[in-house]
Amino acid sequence: MRRLFISLGLTCAMAALLLMPALSAQTQAADKIGWIGPVYKELSDSLTKGFSAYYKKTYGKDVEITFVRPGGWPVCLDKVRAWGDKPDADIFLGAGAPAHEVLKQEGRIVTYQPKDWDKVPLDWHGMKVKDKDYYWTCFSPWIVTNLYNQKVLKILKLPAPKTWKDLLDPIYRGSVVTTLPYASGTMHEMLEIILQSMGEKEGWAYLRLLAAQFDRFSTGSTDTTQMVNRGEVPIGLAQPQMNAMVARRDGYPVSDLLPDKTILVPEAVALLKNAPNAEIGKIFLDWLFSLEGQKYVLEGGYFAARTDIKFSEWQKEGVAMAEHAKGALGVDSFWDLKVGFIEYDLDLATKRWDEVNRIYEYEIYRKWNELKNSLIFIEEVEGEVGAAKTQKMKAAKAEAKIKEARRLFEYDGNYAAARLAATQARALLAKP
């Protein structure tokens, strides 16, 4: 019996020795990295595939990648704020300059200069592309645009609106969809385009009038794209430029049309302060800006950022998305685009980030039904005032009152007072 126990003991010991390499390999495979950001799943899947293969090939180990995507830019930013000094990720992946400037000012990201950092321009047409002190760097540039379903517009016999002003034409009422600035950084940037190009007073007046054109609010930029793709609504506002490229690749009759006033969005990346896997985070950043990493950016449906990239050359190499990128942009490199930008004040946009989101939510979104009904009522009375112009005395008083209603609606956002003024205008017309 004793011999049996000894034999069993030796067998177990030998089995344990045999298992040790496997257990050791499992321990070695525990390298980790975490991302948080608002990028689309197609891009995160592409980067996961590319970086995992690179890491295995270079270091002989697997890397475990986790990706936290709670929502759009503002939601991701608030998630990092909630983590405080102990982030549950290493890399802030995605979002434009204002979000990264907020992270920088709040001390939530740290400096790191990735390899090939110099292959990305510092600025472009006066707009910042990366931080000169290495806090954040653009890995994929794009332009704020709008999407149109060409097939549906043709059926409805509607021309594609070419300017922001065109979108206020009554023919588009109920044919437009967008989302909230808190749900989408692109929508937030659209608000800045309007406010900075028109001025705050005229800008908010325009945004109230524009909101009356909406069919609905989507849950985010992706949702807006999908609704336009399916033809549920013909026009989608505040869209990343590459969404049209991916939609056309997938066979949808969708195109983007740059509005008369727009801005560059440098989709950027940064290393979080106190990142638990900072060294692997730096390896990822180096890879992301390599030619190999940039190919995976393009394959993920985003434009590549390096200035030395030519889509035609990548097309010859078999990079599938290169043909679609060149077709969508009409040039061989993103930086060859000819675009007219507004004079964009990044410091101002950063300073009022939360305020702009709050005003839009409380003054437009939460009062959306009241806003629409008030404008419709004002328009009805305006029609009545116009029809009564033959009765000069009455019409003059009513016209003054309806103009007051317009002012209260557009500039004050006081919809109840605007309705009252319109009611008074109507009453003046009814006086004997």
Describe the structure.
There is one protein chain. By secondary structure, the protein is of the alpha/beta class. The protein has three domains: 30-140 and 266-336, Periplasmic binding protein-like II (D-Maltodextrin-Binding Protein, domain 2); 142-264, Periplasmic binding protein-like II (D-Maltodextrin-Binding Protein, domain 2), CATH 3.40.190; 367-430. It is built from 18 helices and twelve strands. Helix 6 packs across helix 7, helix 9 crosses helix 13 and helix 16 packs parallel to helix 18 (415-430).
Q: Regarding quaternary structure, how should these chains be classified?
A: single chain
- Return the CATH class of the largest domain: Alpha Beta
How is the main sheet built? 10 strands, mixed
As residue ranges, the low-confidence spans are: 1-17, 22-26
Task: Assign the CATH topology of the largest domain.
Answer: D-Maltodextrin-Binding Protein, domain 2
The average pLDDT score comes to: 91
The overall strand count is: 12
Helix content: 40-55%
CATH architecture of the largest domain: 3-Layer(aba) Sandwich
Radius of gyration of CA atoms, rounded to a whole number: 27 Å
Keywords:
432 residues; elongated; alpha/beta; D-Maltodextrin-Binding Protein, domain 2; 53% helix; two-stranded antiparallel sheet; 10-stranded mixed beta sheet
Question: What does this entry show, briefly?
Answer:
By secondary structure, the chain is an alpha/beta fold. It has helices at residues 2-28, 41-59, 73-83, 97-105, 150-156, 185-198, 200-211, 221-230, 242-249, 278-288, 291-299, 311-316, 320-329, 346-351, 353-365, 368-387, 392-412, 415-430; strands spanning 31-36, 63-68, 91-93, 109-110, 123-124, 127-128, 137-149, 176-178, 214-217, 235-240, 254-257, 264-272.
